[in-house]
Amino acid sequence: MTERLPQAFVTGCVQALGRDAVIEDPVAIRTYTIDFWRQVEGRSPLVLRPASTEGVAAAVRLAAAHGVPIVPQAGNTGLLAGAVPDRSGRQVVLSLARLDRIRAIDGPGECLVAEAGVTLADVQAAAAGADRLFPLSLGSEGTCQIGGNLSTNAGGINVLRYGMARELVLGLEVVLADGRVWNGLRTLRKDNTGYDLKQLFIGAEGSLGIITAAALRLFSRPRESQTLFLGVDSPETAVALLARAKDRFAELVTSFELLHGGCIEAAIAHLPGMRRVLETRVPWYLLVEIAWSLPEGLGAQVDAFLEEIFEAGQVLDGTRAESEAQRALLWRMRESMSEAMKEEGPIARNDVSVPIARIPELIARGLAIVAGLEPGARLMPFGHVGDGNLHFNIVLPRNVSDFPRVRDRLQHAILDAVQDLGGSISAEHGIGRLKREQLRTRKPALDIELMAKLKQVLDPSGILNPGVIV
Ligand code: FAD
Q1: What pLDDT score was predicted for residue 4?
Q2: Fewer CB within 10 Å: C terminus or N terminus of the chain?
Q3: Pocket of ligand 1, beta carbon within 6 A
Q4: What pTM did the predictor assign?
């Protein structure tokens, strides 16, 4: 398919990057052109795998000179098809996977510099090796890469305490659309010298520049963690318990996850080694993590809290993880939830957020929407209720006819409700290719105009991930 590309571009890439960094074999290319859910398949004539920042810069300079569109790809675990090319057969995939070095680590200074292709799990391990914590944590952490995490401004299970990916960055190194390298790789905590340029590239999904390395914030490691698994009657009680836990433990509440009862049943049915943790079946479950950096004493505080909430009638059943194995089981269940739910039937997925107090209202409206539009479907939300973010998934009957039409109708109605409640149509997964139309029609016109102007300034020829975001 390289006939779709200027020959001078292909030759230039081979010269600059080396033969083994340029993939032309269609079979090998195919693994880069299909999205994580295997629902979106694009086409690409070439995959580039540079091993250094200079290599990325050389590839982008050649792309700019020949007008070749580039799609940066990290772990390809993004859920909105932002890392795969479109169907034109003109877009070249640029994989960052070979930029996989930890360049520096400073435990006492609490920072680390990693290249874009280091997996999130390896960043976490490097931090742990220096007795520090890198708190970003997602179900895909073994595969996703830090460059992808920053480009999607990933969230995950620890946002409540540590913030989204953007809050964990001190500096970036970025290859710009003309191939120049912007060196913003600083580890300063304080730097008020004009616009905070690094933030432009975080969450930009590869549309404004290509991140090649990042200076990341590290934190003290919690020495004692307590994990609670609670059964509650309603989302209202879940939100009330969040407030009560925050009153009592403040910033020590690291995660506060809500799971619909159907999600737990799906996990027990479909995940190997999973078992029922609470005897009582209840409509909703909470998975809560509270952690501090002192060596002991938190357990007694958490027990007192548990006693209080049982006495107040706020929990129907509940337990504190008694061992690391039990804690790991609970988190594996949570982090494999998408996998488990996939087995239940075709899913209309939404990743939305609303102000925390309005979560019960969103769920009530969601139930009414499903009952009205698709009575055979089941709303099974789960997610980071502590951040107001739910993966608002609707499982459709296996034999649903015309799935795309049904999914779109449901998604449309859910997003209308989210907007009514002052929420966001994409809480942590970004826009990619799949939500671009939603962004265009649902964001205020001035927001879109400013985004388009930024794109024009930073990528005037439109070669960086065209078709993503704006
Ligand atoms: P990719 O999918 O490869 O790329 C994502 C986007 O960034 C694309 O637009 C791509 O072009 C661009 N990009 C990639 N690398 C660069 C770079 N170096 N420079 C510029 N642009 C680049 N997300 C959450 O936020 N929270 C979760 O809890 C969560 N849980 C998940 C659980 C599972 C099981 C799965 C499969 C996904 C989950 N995700 C979650 C979504 C996904 O893992 C994240 O969006 C992740 O940050 C994507 O990283 P990646 O390396 O796979 O990026």
Answers
A1: 79
A2: N
A3: 36, 71-79, 82-83, 96, 116, 138-140, 144-145, 147-149, 151-152, 154-156, 205-206, 210-211, 338, 428-429, 432, 465, 468
A4: 0.96
